[in-house]
Amino acid sequence: MFVLELDKNAISSEFIFRHEENIKLLNNLQKELISKKNKYEVTNELLNNIEKHTNTNTDILFVNSEPESNEVLQLKELLNSLVLNLSKLCKNLQTQKDEDLLNLAKNAQDGISKEISALEVLSIPQDLL
Predict the structure, then answer these.
(1) Which of 38, 108, 114, 117 supports an S-S bond with 25, CB 3.0-4.6 Å?
(2) Could you name the CATH architecture of 9-123?
């Protein structure tokens, strides 16, 4: 029988690292988008979600031992919404042929997806590990 042991401390560290890196990526993307907002039909929802992500206090997630706490559920919802927003933006940028901004948006989308994956693992109840 094969037993998979998950080191939640390592995954927590990975999540926090991803979150901090994504803040940098999203802030760069946000600056670019604001300067070109009218050109690319940037939605306020995307800009608001970037702002919410930047202001998320990840410490509260690890204090609470409840894997499906309101904080965790709200963060999952925010991250999933960001991925959808970024996906729409990427499609728009592909038609506009702005490769630099497209690459920045794709990197942000990839980073958020990795953050979601780490959060999913952290959300597994301890008794199931």
Answers:
(1) 108
(2) Up-down Bundle (1.20)
